[in-house]
Amino acid sequence: METNNYKETNDLDVVERGSSQGEKAGVSPSGAPSGERRPAAGLERYINLAAVVNFGVIILASWESLAVTFQFALNNGGPASIFYGSILAGFGACAIGFSLAELASIDPTVGAQYRWSANLAPAAPRFWGLLQGWVTVGAWCFACSGPPSILANMITSLAIFNNENYVPERWHTSLIMIAVMIVPFCFNLWFRKLLDAFEMTGGILHIGLFIVFVVVLIVFGPRSDPDFVFKTLIWENSGWNNKGVSWGLGLLSMTFSVTGADSVLHMCDEVKKVRTRVPRSIILTCTVNSVMMFVFATVLLFYMGPLDNAIDTRLPLLWVFHGITGSKIAANVLISFLAVIFFFALFNIFASVSRLVWVFARDNGLPFSSFFAYVHPTLKLPVNALLLVGSIVTCLSLIYIASDTAFNALISLQALALHVSYFFPILFILLRKVRGPPPPYGPFKMGAIGVPVNVFALCYIVYVVVWMPFPQSLPVTKDNMNYAGVIFGAVVLGALGHWFIRGRKTFKMPVIRYE
């Protein structure tokens, strides 16, 4: 990898201009400098280095996410799927992360994927920009439902654990999801300037809890035979009766846990020294989380003990800690601290996605764009965009009323949509590298390994996306149906409909001129 000599200031980066109708997008052939990009009107740069690094790390919360979703992989694939899947997912996430970091170094922008696609597409840049914008915005709006669904699952599991007579209804879960959004939503409105301290606290908790969980498992848990970890493949439980299919479906928990390294990109206009700090954050986010997830997965498999009575529960990890420690108090405390991490992640996701919705609306990429592009003059926040995100998560939470397996559908939806959002900008930058001329690189450049990393990232994306819409078990019913593909398909149809009805005339093509 190479780091180019580049002198950076807080505000001087890249020119961004919304073109007039019909203006062709693309990189200036000469790469000539044409000015500077400052934070958009109403926003200000206040996020420091430590905060921007912790921001992405906490949103992924990879080892924590695996801890509360590994039951899906145990039923489809088993221990071998978790162990080897965590390796594959880690390398895949790093390949994607490094590719995005290189793009972020070239053009650090809130719009990220859709602006890169618009400026690097070999043809029809306006179409690709709008389509990519809908996919990316949809992906991150779906991702906002991840932490609330996990928290709702944890809360109901704790309620059952401490009160055997409690029987959760589907609508209970929906209400809990809506309720847990209130605190991070309010924090985004009125405590934005506390983000630096907030991220530092979350980062310390993220690492501290990891050490505690690993130590507790090793000290109190019975050690499993290596054959159980490395060779046990389970495929009969789900009804698929095929080892390859079960292993592929079991990969979902691992890919879900390391997806979302681009989150910090959507805060670009509020990050100091954005050209170097955002790429660093993306690289650290994917590498640190991938390593921590692999270590936790390995320790968990070796020391979690028998799961005969816990595998079919909502949260097997709760019963694992109760089983190895023999203490209800210890199990409650450990799981409660784990839940705090997801509150931090939810705060960060609301902040990131509201900026993404706002900037896409500013480019007339959405219906009622003028409304969602509004920035409150006092709060200096895209308040209407934030309200839209909260409304979408509220609607998604209602899926639980229709299906008690909606939790799996929501995490499938998030992973599916985010991976698709990464595919096109990585493909377009790869085509520019192969066909030429490549865009002028920023401070971070992968150099000779860039093309192989991009190719591996694309192959990994295609592989995991194939499995995301599959139902986890057979036979398929209305209760175990995976609605991820259907909902994502609706977003694509919405994008195409908007393009033909109005978007091709009103979408402001984001033209980038590089220094």
TrEMBL record:
Q: Does the keyword Transmembrane apply?
A: yes
Q: How does it sit in the membrane?
A: Multi-pass membrane protein
Q: Origin, by domain of life?
A: Eukaryota
Subcellular compartments: Membrane
Task: Name the major location.
Answer: membrane
GO CC field: membrane
Query: Which Pfam families does UniProt cross-reference here?
Result: AA_permease_2
Q: Which keywords belong to this entry?
A: Membrane, Transmembrane, Transmembrane helix, Transport
The keyword Transport belongs to this UniProt entry's keyword annotation? yes
- State which residue ranges cross the membrane: 46-63, 83-106, 127-151, 171-191, 203-224, 244-261, 282-304, 329-360, 381-403, 409-431, 451-470, 482-501
Region (Disordered) location: 1-37
List the molecular function annotations (GO) for this entry: transmembrane transporter activity
Output the PANTHER family linked to this UniProt entry.
AMINO-ACID PERMEASE BAT1, GABA TRANSPORTER (EUROFUNG)-RELATED
- Know the name of this protein? Amino acid transporter
